[in-house]
User: Which sequence fits this backbone?
């Protein structure tokens, strides 16, 4: 049985353009995967905390030496990681905010990058431990960046996911959403049809 994890990071929760595009994919995916299950993680209503010294300290403390507070930090990160590990398909709604991913998505990423858990170092370099996932990223933007050197968001997301072992990653863009109604409508229509083509 398949399991899908949808991660929304728009400040507008499920009302965001990126969340709606991701939702469109998930709706079609569930029709072609009867009996499958879906988890939605909404980072606007339930944000991961920013990393601080205490959190990083918990990550670096050996399990048997962790204080009760550090155990809580680890338990939270473990829950997020278990959610990702349980999914075959991961859908990320990632609008562009100030030339990057939303800070809530970055904080979430900071909690799932754990040495010895989601990646490890070998003599030949880092090895990602989150393998066998199909990932689809929906990125909505006010302007145009895709396939240009200005698209630092795609590079960041692809590199981060690849570092953890997720290499089957597709991006769907809806761009120019701040450039008039007609551009917005055509970009969203195109992105919706690209989403359906990616459902497998
Ligand atoms: C705080 C904020 C920052 C934004 N920064 C950018 C940006 O750097 N470049 C851009 O093209 N659009 C930017 N936009 C526009 C959004 O990318 C666009 O409205 C997108 O549809 C938002 O997706 P959402 O509805 O899923 O949140 C920004 C929007 C907000 C709210």
Assistant:
């Amino acid at each position: 049985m398949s399991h899908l994890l949808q991660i929304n990071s728009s400040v507008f929760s499920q009302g965001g353009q990126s969340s709606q595009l991701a939702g469109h994919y998930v709706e079609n995916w569930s029709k072609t995967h009867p009996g499958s299950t879906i988890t939605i993680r909404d980072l606007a209503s339930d944000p991961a905390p920013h990393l601080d010294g205490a959190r990083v300290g918990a990550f670096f403390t050996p399990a048997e030496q962790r204080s009760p507070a550090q155990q809580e930090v680890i338990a939270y990160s473990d829950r997020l990681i278990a959610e990702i590990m349980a999914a075959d398909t991961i859908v990320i709604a990632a609008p562009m905010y100030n030339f990057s991913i939303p800070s809530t998505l970055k904080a979430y990423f900071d909690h799932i990058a754990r040495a010895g858990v989601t990646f490890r170092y070998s003599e030949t370099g880092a090895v990602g431990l989150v393998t066998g996932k199909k990932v689809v990223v929906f990125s909505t933007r006010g302007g145009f960046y895709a396939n240009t050197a200005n698209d630092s968001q795609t590079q960041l997301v692809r590199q981060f996911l690849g570092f953890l072992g997720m290499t089957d990653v597709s991006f769907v863009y809806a761009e120019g959403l701040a450039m008039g109604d007609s551009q917005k409508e055509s970009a969203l229509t195109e992105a919706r049809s690209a989403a359906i083509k990616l459902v497998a």
About this structure: Residues 10-12, 16-19, 95-99, 140-143, 177-178 surround flavin mononucleotide (CB under 6 Å).
